[in-house]
Design brief:
- This protein is mostly beta strands.
- Among the domains are: 97 residues, Immunoglobulins (Immunoglobulin-like), CATH 2.60.40.10; 84 residues, Immunoglobulin-like (Sandwich); 86 residues, Sandwich (Immunoglobulin-like); 85 residues, Immunoglobulins (Immunoglobulin-like), CATH 2.60.40.10.
- The protein is built from five helices and 43 strands.
- Strands 1, 3, 4, 7, 8 and 9 form a six-stranded mixed β-sheet that branches. Strands 11, 14, 17, 18 and 21 form a five-stranded mixed β-sheet that branches.
- Strand 36 and strand 37 form a beta hairpin.
- The longest helix is centred in the C-terminal third of the chain and has 51 residues.
Length: 653
Amino acid sequence: MSDFHVHPQATVGEEGGVARFQCQIHGLPKPLITWEKNRVPIDTDNERYTLLPKGVLQITGLRAEDSGVFHCVASNIASVRVSHGARLTVTGSGSGAYKEPTILVGPENLTLTVHQTAVLECVATGNPRPIVSWSRLDGRPIGVEGIQVLGTGNLIISDVTVQHSGVYVCAANRPGTRVRRTAQGRLVVQAPAEFVQHPQSISRPVGTTAMFTCQAQGEPPPHVTWLKNGQVLGPGGHVRLKNNNSTLTISGIGPEDEAIYQCVAENSAGSSQASARLTVLWAEGLPGPPLNVQAVPVSSTEVRVSWTEPLVNTREIIGYVLHIRKAADPPELEYQEAVSKSTFQHLVSDLEPSTAYSFYIKAYTPRGASSASAPTLASTLGEAPAPPPLSARVLGSSTLQLLWEPWPRLAQHEGGFKLFYRPASKAAFTGPILLPGTVSSYNLSQLDPTAVYEVKLLAYNQHGDGNATVRFLSLRGAAERTALSPPCDCRKEEATNQTSTTGIVIGIHIGVTCIIFCVLFLLFGQRGRVLLCKDVENQLSPPQGPRSQRDPGILAPNGAGRAEWGPLGRDGKRVDMKELEQLFPRAGALQPLPRPTQDPEAPALCEVTQLSMLPLRGLSLLEEMPSEAPLPQDVGPGLPSEGPAAQPAPSGP
């Protein structure tokens, strides 16, 4: 054991109060802590004395006989050590005076490993004696399993787990009131790394791919490292690490890859390791690597790769696999394309322009794959840039601003933009105006506001000029478009959008209500109109006998006698001027029709019905009459053809 690095300190307490002593010492094995008072071991059966595992002595309900000198005694199988003495002095009683609840010692922040014991101390004083309670700050229950309360309020959690991590709150409440004082401490429980999935030993043919998986858990989350025969193994070449190093992939394995691979998972709480063996199966009679691999660019997106057969064991070859990746990409981004055994060249398409690619080939047989050929590099051809998008806006009475997207890559390929412009009425362009690829606008000034200009913008690089974007622009047209399409008032638009939903809902309700009322009006109104008018029409109908026997004195439907009918119209119908005067009065207002003389008590509803139908009747007559004929007054259906001449027509309806 070392010497005590914390000795107990002298303290003074009031009768009925609380006293606390603490000592700390390190040793192997861990020392056992006991306490002595006046060189005599204290009575552990006394409920007022509480000994905590971390070397703390608490005395509650102090009395005069508790005064004395206290020593901390640490012992293990190696030795026994005694701390310095600390005197406790108990003063007179102050039990009559009221004291607010006070927490003398609150819980400390603890970091433990699973299966250890957590001691959360809480020493409170007050008059009357406060009630100590515990809770978690996150509101989760503390539970009961493995939970113990020592003394008047010390929380002991045995065999802690990761789920016990959290902030614990100690509260001292005055009995019968809501007066309370709180203190809190954080408990962090760590778990050493342990494996959820161990790597498994495998055997694979030469030229194939081997994969090991190693998954571990712990708190904090562990870091995984791979070793090959005891040496740290990092990604590179044909070795890849994925999923936070939990997956080890070795592609194109050979005899040199046969080894013991170890997975080591570690965190601040501990570490674990697991191992597995890779056995490489070397089959007799495998072909050698393909030879003379060459890659020739064909276009900006295509490369032709060619090769020759291996030197040995070519009889069992069933095909070739071409491995492709960008030269700047890691090996895990590689992809493959299969080729038949009788083909010794392959056109690789869908590549990116001006980009370097790496190629290598393997020959495959039913027994396995050959070793890889020597890799070869090739770059796709470049191409001229695409036409850039172009727009414009007015900056003044004689200035246009041209806008497009910048292309920084043009500068990497000795490129930029070329701008040309001219009045549409002229043959020669002004330009080219050379602009770097990072520029995104250019102002054309001193322009004629009345002229239309043709503007061309193209991008170029070391492979030539791309196609141009052509625009015909004028200051007048651009200014009108700007006035018709002012900048967005985002605040106003946002307010409009917020009210649009409410307006739609209200409009739907109003529309449905109007439709219902219209349908009801049409149904009931039409039914009533037909019933009321049927009798009146029967009363006003002319006799149905032969035309020669009809009485010339019988009234027409509108109360006009035979003497009031004019000459025949073009279709054999006579015209009545009085009725047309009522339909189309000279003053522009309709006059109510006179009631039929035969039925002076006819309902007003029928008069309105006749009035509403007459304009339609009059319009049909106007359509039938020749344009040069004088305006008729009316036509009486079924009346005799004789009669006096019609009066002169009015000047207009």
